[in-house]
Specification:
Number of helices: 3
Distance between the termini: 34 Å
Radius of gyration: 17 Å
CATH topology of the largest domain: GMP Synthetase, Chain A, domain 3
Strand content: 25-35%
Shape: globular
Structural class: alpha+beta
CATH architecture of the largest domain: 2-Layer Sandwich
Oligomer: single chain
Strand order of the largest sheet: 1-2-3
Helix content: 25-40%
């Protein structure tokens, strides 16, 4: 792959530290969620992954929508990223909830979401590695 852009971020002190990008646009406190025994202060890697995946998938949906000449510009993508024990370690699972404009019929919407799942870089990175469920609403 010939990278068009490379994001650079650094994290210190793991889940209870800080994460920041080299350009200073992102600089935030990390914290363990209360559900995992933490104090819930700060954001966590799963939230960051969910934000990135939902934004990326929405862009992919826009691309395939434009190619199909279907306006999906008002679509909303919500990513739910779960973390849990898996064997000796931990694993992730994702549900992508895609809310399409009312003007898009169910069959067309489902096809566009499936196509977006084929071109989205996050979907390509996770395919075969973690379960990703697509829900069209």
């Amino acid at each position: 792959m010939d990278a068009l852009y490379t994001a650079v971020a650094t994290a210190t002190h793991g889940r209870e530290g800080r994460a920041f990008t080299n350009d200073g646009r992102l600089d935030l406190e990390l914290g363990i969620p209360t559900e995992m025994g933490g104090n819930g202060q700060g954001t966590n890697p799963e939230q960051l992954f969910a934000a990135g995946y939902s934004a990326c998938f929405a862009s992919a949906l826009g691309l395939v929508g434009r190619q199909a000449k279907v306006d999906v510009s008002d679509a909303a993508v919500t990513a739910e990223v779960g973390i849990g024990k898996e064997g000796e370690g931990f694993g992730l699972a994702v549900t992508l909830r895609v809310e399409l404009p009312e003007s898009v019929d169910a069959e067309t919407g489902r096809k566009l979401v499936e196509q977006a799942h084929q071109v989205c870089p996050y979907s390509n990175a996770t395919r075969g590695n973690i379960p990703v469920e697509l829900v069209v609403e």
